[in-house]
Amino acid sequence: MIEPTKLQELSGGQKRRKLALTFGALERDIAGIAEKGTEYSFKSMPRQTYTKKIAEVLLKDEKLPPEAAEEIRRLISAEPFDELRLCNVCRNQLLKIIGTFPAEWDLVIAPHANPVEEDGTVRQRQFYPGVAVYAEDIRSPFNLGSIFRTAEGMGAEKVIISPLCVDPEQPRAVRSGMGCIETMGYERMAVEDLPEDIPVFALETGGTPIEEFEFPEKGICIIGSEELGVSPQALKRATYGRVTIPMIGLKASLNVGVAFGILMQKWCESLEKRR
Q1: Which of residues 57 and 111 earns the better pLDDT score?
Q2: Strand 187-188 vs strand 158-161: parallel, antiparallel, or unpaired?
């Protein structure tokens, strides 16, 4: 982090970017999940005082809307002082001025129970062994990145993609994956080459309602393309069965990434119950 007086001396865009990064680091420090080397360390002033001072630096920005400035002043003087709220409001206002989507800055490194290196790198992922997803012919890089992010967050061991699936290295996939594509890695494989010694099931309409489906302890879930769903070949390969998310809406349709998130939550619940 940088001294408030030095922040004030920076110019325009450089100042805004540094402020946005500083508020983000403060948010993680307040939440107790600061990355190694970014913890609040100024001994000359309490962190709350520092937070107020850099918020006052932002108040001098001529591009800050009047209503935003009024809210920031109110948060600075509020009792009790909500430090996290002030940081969040300031950071989001800065990102609006910079012209950057907040989601592009929002990767938060959560604390891990697993061993870490001295630089803070986690040596080993925590996951459910044998739990995998097969992404068949996903066209949208944003959807594929979301699938990786959900798979990593919920504890899948691996992601397998079909030969016609969009490239996970595509920039928009990498962006929406928020680091999870690099963390998990992947293998590309035809559906007929999926291993025979593990249950394979499909997330598709016309199957067993998700509340009644008996999830395997280890297995591969096939999720299909946005336009065509799971292919006939993949449905044939899904010998363990088909699971369906019941819906009552007129469209009765979910984004593939959202549907996969619902499925992973239910699968993880069943694994935890077995523990």
Answers
A1: 57
A2: parallel
